[in-house]
Amino acid sequence: MPVEWIPLVGILLNVASRVVENTGEALRYRKKCQLLRTRVQIITTHLRALNEAQWTPDPLATKDTLECLRQVLGRAEALVASCLRRKKAFDFLKAFRNKGEFAFVDEQISHIMEAFHLANYTLLLLLSNDRDDRIFMVVLDTLIEDGACRRLPQNKKDEVFKHMSGLPQSDNMPPEKRKRLDLITRDLRAGSYLRQCGFAGSTSSGNRGQNHNDDPVLKKVADLAEALVEEAKAVRSHNKEEVQRVAQLAQKVIYLLPHLQPPLPTRNQETITELQDDLNGALQNIAQHRPLQCGPSALTLRAGSFRRQEAKRIAELGNSIEKGYQTLTLKVVQHITTGNA
Length: 341
Hints:
mainly alpha, 73% helix, elongated, MLKL-like_MCAfunc, MLKL_N, Mixed lineage kinase domain-containing protein
């Protein structure tokens, strides 16, 4: 099936590049433009990974998502372009509309990134399952090499042949499985041909089975993410949207950590450390700035510019956590598919 979404990636990368460049020159809404810039940079990283892999679990869904992203980036480009000129005295209505447009674009980017994260995690699970299957293939290769099939009693050999005869004779069977099937058949009849066929059990199972709790840094990251998820549950109205987004990202980090098998933690130590710092910063920020339960005066203290500053800081930390999560996810996928990350 043709990969129809690939041409879209190049187009979107060009639009994203213009958005990032223009946000750095904004004369109005500079803080909002900076937040938008960070999110678009995260999208750019994902688009480049897509362009390199040229494969996703669901090509049609990917195309639909990219089409939506095309519209959103178009609106983001127009929005940033309007921020390249200084505000005039009569421009209050335009300013009000821009504030709403920033919120809309940010919300749409969140929806699109959620689709990308889901696709990445689906791919990660598919690849991980395939990697787990290879462990059993290593065991099977070792048993065949050791002559296990050859040493079976005749009645057991007949039973194995009976089960093998029920397998569909399909040309679509993967070459490795077909080769193993042929080797088992020959070994049952005449002895082990594994060595002379050059198909020894040389594949290594690696370091599977190591839990992230064995790595003190990953354990710390997991503890912080879990604490952040719990802390977010106590939030009622204080910057709730920003906090819940950070909590959702922390939950994704928790799901990702078991897939960070050696040597990935060592190779990506800087990214993991930054992710740990961001999670800790978010946790401290949310815990420290809970709404005070001291009467109406406390609510007054939390209002205005101070509350907006807190929301901006939480949003910045969320963007950084999302960037770290995405980077590590792509590294895991790359490691599984190529053995190099």
